[in-house]
């Protein structure tokens, strides 16, 4: 039986590899064709030939009003405004996503070169000289792209905020509710759902006054293509009366998602996400100290960065399914993580979906065009077919975003921070006194359980709780009452220990 199972497993793996190669080779071609199609439509509808990341990084960044500083390894963008010079980290995976055929070709050539070098191993002296010569060529200098000259000649002056959605984005009242506030105050803030003891600030940005009855604050950060409803529709109604009288609860829609601003000119970098949370929650609601953070999936990365930026203020850190993949030595961090979360396989289905979202800029835009722009139709059909048995808040979180926001957030947060996460975790271990608790569903196919144990290896005091028969979503949805009690216990223990 064991041998038969092994043969079947191996056969299934081979079939998956073969089918995946054919499927993703076709998708490579389809994305290439869609690239030209969207450029033509953009030119016709918006009178602007939009660059994309299929072209060189130089063209994409130049035309977007930014300066590309480095094209090797960790890339950075210089943003110039009238008063500030920003250096933002962007992921090279945005413009360096080789097709499956080209990757196979490179691997084949590399393998042939390796075999040839092994055959010429006796010519040791020649090999040594060659390696010495190659080593003298390598440098670690920080080069500035020549694009800066063109940028300084006037392109920056034409850069402006674009609150109006693109033709391929939804323009309904829910998705564009942020436009009026942005046009009014010039900058806008995130949508924040707040609950406080007594007369609270309610929905939106709310009041900045702090209720005297609340001892501490809690900030909830959702994951990828989700919204604050992931927390407010599950946990908020299930917190005890004592918890609601002791804590102010803040659930944010991240920049580009839910009812928060979705600027078309944003690169959705980690700095932008952090700045918006600080402006919309910490400053607007006067959250200065003694706050807890609860985060899910991609939100865990934002939570770690926020905790590191405010080390004296965080009381507890609760992470759900953190996407932490330790990068082996010699591997390029961004590319390694992209291949882990999006392996370009047709099975399991969740890996196929992640691969579509991560590898294909124009196919993922087409999916957003079909689903997000027409989300009202899909919500109606879902309610009709399921007879209102599906929790609609999950649909709202899934639908209410733009392709620009999802594409850049996925690459710049999950892939782009791959080389920084170890530093964040080490800082939490060495310099933060907060408690760290990690929850993970055992059946999570999107982010494997070992990611949580990897975090625990970097932070030994972190407590990992693996929940049986739960996946990436049902770790909260479906067990909200139990999870609400667990959070209350974490907050209470961290307060008593301090």
Automatic annotation (TrEMBL):
UniProt keyword annotations, A-Z: Hydrolase
GO molecular function: hydrolase activity
Domain AB hydrolase-1: 218-325
Pfam families on file: Abhydrolase_1
InterPro entries per UniProt: AB_hydrolase_1 (IPR000073), AB_hydrolase_fold (IPR029058)
Signal peptide: none
Lineage top rank: taxon: Eukaryota
PANTHER family assigned: HYDROLASE, LYSOPHOSPHOLIPASE BODYGUARD 3-RELATED
Protein name (database record): Alpha/beta hydrolase-1
Organism: Quillaja saponaria (Soap bark tree)
Organismal lineage: Eukaryota, Viridiplantae, Streptophyta, Embryophyta, Tracheophyta
